[in-house]
Specification:
The protein is an all-alpha fold. The chain contains 21 helices and no strands.
């Protein structure tokens, strides 16, 4: 059994990461002054010295294996293609055309609510928050100044809606992981989970309808080049159809470049310049993702997660306590791994044992795990979703976090669901 001293030491890279990033940025008075890549790199260097009994080369190998995990590499593929598509679509005019069409049809005071609903619908259909953010963030980034909104605020509307589907969609990897680990039907988990989060969704929608104001704009946007929006709309439709996100982005890039050449808005040199700019915009995000994988593998090798599970599952005396521990364990594991699916898979077996021991419905346990992971993933500045949104919108993740009403709302509803033990059935 790992001791308290060794267990806390194994988890200490997380403390190093958060201290350097948050404390450093606070004292500097500017979150841009302390790049998150530096914080992760410092945590990785520090973590190398925690792996006792290994040569330095073997320690570096542990970090490298974590950084090159198949899940990490798959995410990097998405980042690269998303960056290229966003830059290509912008260069050929797809984003501007889509914004013009949207602003021609939707009144400005209903624009945030409309974007939130669209984000919820798309994420439910495609089952991935990252894919939804990739699809909508470039559009709202251009739209924000035209309707008098802060870019970070409008991007937060997209991110919030993206986590609605990530939490509830039948094809979401978090839903699949939660239901499979607890042995319950997806439909049962959906009904229970829906009752927990729908109040947060309704409250968020009311905020966007009644509690916010946007600037007035004249509906004079030129839409005679509406056809330039087709590559962008194609990506959304293909994503909703269930096509693999990598294939969707590849087809979107191809369509944007072909239409750009046909329309005369792009030429061969412009195509390659846009692709290079798109890849360049994702470099920091890619580096952070790889470093995060490396740091988490250090913690795993040092048995930090084993210690965390043992500590948090001791001293449980009631159903309410068991549910609270499942939520806390999932949330903290997600904080460490920055991946909600991995957090659920890590905690799944422990949660199932607790649910059997304290006679908790598997659908409730699965809902708690999924909601807790989406809550944490939705508000951490180094999660893939916020990094992707901030990279595409060219804003700091810290600027987006205060406006994430829906992720914060489901966190509140999760606490209430545990304290008052609802839904009962």
């Amino acid at each position: 059994m790992i001791s308290n001293k060794k267990g806390l030491l194994a988890l200490s890279p997380i403390a190093v990461l958060l201290t350097i990033y948050l404390a450093g940025a606070y004292f500097a008075g500017d979150f841009y002054r302390v790049p998150i890549t530096v914080s992760f790199f410092a945590a990785a260097i520090y973590g190398l010295f925690l792996l006792k009994g290994k040569s330095f080369n073997d320690r570096v190998k542990v970090v490298s294996e974590g950084a090159s995990h198949p899940d990490i590499m798959y995410m990097i593929w998405i980042f690269c293609l998303a960056g290229i598509f966003a830059a290509s679509a912008k260069a050929m005019g797809a984003v501007d055309a889509t914004v013009a069409l949207t602003m021609k049809v939707v009144p400005s005071n209903f624009m945030p609510a409309g974007i939130f609903i669209a984000s919820c619908f798309i994420s439910m259909a495609i089952g991935t928050s990252v894919g939804t953010i990739v699809a909508l963030t470039p559009m709202v980034t251009v739209m924000a100044p035209q309707i008098g909104c802060e870019t970070a605020w409008l991007v937060a509307v997209v991110v919030g809606g993206a986590f609605f589907g990530d939490n509830l969609s039948f094809i979401s990897d978090t839903t699949i992981a939660a239901t499979q680990s607890q042995g319950c039907k997806m439909s049962d988990k959906f009904k229970t989970n829906f009752l927990i989060v729908v109040p947060a969704a309704i409250a968020t929608l009311c905020i966007y309808i009644f509690g916010t104001s946007t600037g007035e704009y004249a509906a004079t946007h030129d839409i005679h080049e509406w056809y330039k929006a087709l590559p962008y709309l194609m990506v959304i439709i293909l994503a909703i159809s269930g096509m693999n996100v990598l294939m969707v982005l590849l087809l979107g890039i191809l369509a944007a470049n072909i239409m750009g050449v046909i329309c005369g808005s792009m030429e061969s040199l412009t195509i390659f310049t846009a692709m290079g700019d798109g890849l360049g915009s994702m470099m920091e995000l890619i580096l952070v993702t790889m470093l995060a994988g490396g740091v988490m593998n250090i913690i795993r090798q040092a048995r930090g997660f084993d210690y965390l599970i043992r500590v948090l599952t001791s001293g449980i005396k009631s159903k309410r306590g068991a549910e609270g521990i499942v939520a806390l364990l999932t949330a903290f594991t997600n904080l460490c791994t920055a991946n909600n699916t991995i957090a659920i898979l890590t905690v799944g077996s422990i949660a199932r044992d607790l649910s059997k021991k304290y006679s908790i419905s598997p659908r409730k346990t699965a809902s708690i795990m999924d909601t807790a992971s989406c809550f944490v993933q939705g508000i951490i500045p180094y999660g893939a979703q916020l990094l992707m949104a901030s990279g595409l919108a060219a804003v700091s993740p810290i600027e987006i976090i205060p406006h994430l009403y829906y992720p914060m709302g489901i966190g509140v509803m999760l606490i209430l669901a545990i304290l008052f033990r609802f839904p009962k059935r």
